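Issue: copy button drops trailing tokens. Both records pasted manually instead:
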Amino acid sequence: MAETKMSVVALLAHLAKAADLKASELSSGSVNRTQGTKHWKYGYGGYAYGGPVDCSGLIVAIARYLRPNYLRMTSADMEALCEYNISDKLPDKVGALVWRPKTATQSGHVGIYTGKSAAGDMYTVEAFDETDNVARRGNRLAPTAAKPFTKWGYLDFVQY
């Protein structure tokens, strides 16, 4: 029996809720805020729907909304889902998983690509830290960005 998959539209609706944005704001260059007031809170190791969540926990929480037994994965585990190097090919589908390696201050990190603005800015939604919590972030796919994402792939619970 094939497992149920979530549509990209549903994934974006969950991400918008987590970041306290309208779905249309996930890739709009006109939004001046990176987070709302009802966004999910960051919590290292968290993966509860509604928060607190860490970067991989955000993705697991949304997956578990659809599949309650979805395995808990870390950002290191999620690297295996990322088969493309951003330097070779940028994400071609909204809802793609993006990953970057460990830094001196943070273990590996994941987010979800939410689209490109008319100006060409590429956006992600991520659970980053206690300051930003779950927020929309811009231009982290550019190699010149601070702590850029380096790989991407498709989530196994999303129908692209």
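Record 2 (pasted manually too):
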Amino acid sequence: MTARDNLRKAETLFRNTFDQAPLGIVYADRSGKFLRFNHAFCTMLGFDAGELADKDIGDVTGAEDVARVSTELERLWNGEIQFVDLEKRYTRKGRRDSLGTPRRRRWCMKAARRPSTRSSSCAISPPGRRPPRNSNACTSN
């Protein structure tokens, strides 16, 4: 087996794992713009892929969590911390309470970056299915 075959095999394994994961996974650039996300992430938020393509982390983060999430992600990008592990609220499409305010769901987010890259990724799960702290569920590309 050649190095090219090994690379192709690893890429296929990664793509299948990413696409078929039961947890929401999203890659975002430094500004928070989504670069890639899986079907579980779309389902979690009630959007189809086309609707999420032009959104960023702030667009789907509950207003009460934006400042805290922004601070933690900035610390991640500055290299002060190696990963972010927090519980935050996401705004789901089409879900509103009786006052017309978007309903929010609490989910756990674990984000990580590598110093040599300009993107980060995160795994997102319901609070009862929190990604393990020491897992490699969040890797950068």
